[in-house]
Design brief:
Layout lengths: L1 H11 L23 H39 L3 H19 L8 H19 L2 E3 L12 E8 L9 E6 L2 E3 L2 E4 L1 E7 L2
Parallel strand pairs: 2-6
Antiparallel strand pairs: 1-4, 3-6, 4-5
Helix pairs in contact: 3-4
């Protein structure tokens, strides 16, 4: 008779799942139904934040584009100035072979040409880098060689300019090639 009691208990417990100890169980999350109005407000807030972010990104792109355009306009003729400086250097080399008291038409023509070219490119924003006797600035100068420091030229001072350097507005166009006094 005890067997029949056990069978009835087993049959009645079929609806309830039996979980053995030590087995992993999975938790089932209950999804709460969200109010449609709250869901719409949440989506609207998210969309507003995305729109604000995109607008800020567009403004930043506009500012960057305007800055780049301004710089292109400001420094657009930098390449032409560099080319004109090489021609000016050739004129200077030709003038080095002419004495200062030479008044021949050729000498006067070279002086006029040099002055006119310098006047035009300096009016566009080109300026010479003042280096001799100044402190060595690696951003504007290139040290070709060094010599021992002296009382007249302490260490780190430019002793001589081998090739002149030029700036175009605030940018270095051609670095000055210099001789620097060194303590070493």
């Amino acid at each position: 008779m005890s067997e029949s009691v056990d069978e009835t208990n087993v049959e009645s417990n079929d609806d309830v799942p039996v979980i053995e100890e030590g087995t992993d169980t999975m938790e089932v999350g209950v999804i709460e139904e969200q109010d449609p109005l709250e869901a719409a407000l949440t989506r609207a807030d998210t969309a507003e934040k995305e729109i604000a972010y995109k607008e800020a990104e567009i403004q930043n792109l506009r500012k960057r584009h305007l800055n780049e355009k301004s710089e292109l306009i400001q420094y657009g003729s930098m390449g032409l100035a560099r080319k004109m400086l090489s021609v000016l250097a050739d004129v200077d080399r030709a003038m080095n072979n002419i004495s200062d008291d030479d008044q021949s038409p050729l000498a006067q023509g070279l002086r006029m040409l040099r002055n006119k070219m310098w006047h035009e490119i300096s009016g566009d924003g080109v300026s010479a880098i003042e280096a001799k006797g100044k402190r060595f600035d690696p951003a504007k100068m290139e040290a070709i060689t060094t010599i021992p420091a002296s009382d007249d030229f302490p260490g780190g001072t430019v002793v001589d300019v081998i090739e002149a350097g030029y700036m175009y507005k605030k940018k270095v166009l051609i670095a000055a090639r210099v001789v620097v006094a060194s303590d070493d």
